[in-house]
Amino acid sequence: MNAHGMNVAVIFYSLHGDTAALAAAVAQGAEQAGATVRLRQLEGLAPPQDRWSSSERIRATRERLASVPLARHADLFWADAIALGSPARYGAMSAELRRFLDGPGQLAGDLAGKVACVFCSPSPIQGAQRAALHAMITSLLRHGVIVQAPARAQMDPAETTSAAARRGPPGGLDLALARALGRRLALLEDRIHG
């Protein structure tokens, strides 16, 4: 089954680069399923120069992501399916993603019937990833989106990966799982609306 003719928007916020790497893998998976993909990043809420000056890793991430366009609500309307990514901020989605979904210029049900999935980068805090994924799902449900549930490995990474793999990038990012998520999203949308 191929998801030809289907549009997928992969929208993410990434400060240190982990969520960006997952987003690229999700986009790759959707493309492998035959979808047309828009990979978009969310703009940070803090002035960039403040954060850039504090960390070499943040500066390097900003440079790597310079060519990735900023997300707009038009990307959500264009898409048949949506993948949203965020760091697991102490069990919450990033403020940047929260503002995009629920802030000024609210979407007010304009996403009803679209298919979506969520993903987030690993967190050293037990349960933070699960809580962040739940927060993103709850936000999407309020917009009438049909949500593809995350795989168990996304919800409970501590139970499905070794301690060495959870220590951080690059070993802590399961890019194969992210690619599979993108493929599943594209194929689910095709089954529902195709």
Describe it.
It is a single chain. The protein has helices at residues 18-32, 48-52, 56-64, 73-78, 95-102, 128-142, 152-155, 157-160, 175-193; strands spanning 7-12, 36-41, 81-86, 115-120, 146-147. Mean pLDDT is 83; it is low at 159-171. It has 194 residues and is of the alpha/beta class. Helix 6 links the parallel strand 4 (115-120) and strand 5 (146-147). The chain has a five-stranded parallel β-sheet with strand order 2-1-3-4-5. The protein is globular, with a radius of gyration of 16 Å.
Main sheet overview: 5 strands, parallel
Share in β-strands? 5-15%
What would you report as the Rg, rounded to the nearest angstrom?
16 Å
Spans where pLDDT lies below 50 across 5 or more residues: 159-171
List the helices and strands and how they pair.
Blueprint lengths: L6 E6 L5 H15 L3 E6 L6 H5 L3 H9 L8 H6 L2 E6 L8 H8 L12 E6 L7 H15 L3 E2 L4 H4 L1 H4 L14 H19 L1
Parallel strand pairs: 1-2, 1-3, 3-4, 4-5
Helix pairs in contact: 1-9
Which properties best describe this structure?
194 residues, alpha/beta, five-stranded parallel beta sheet, 9 helices, 44% helix, globular
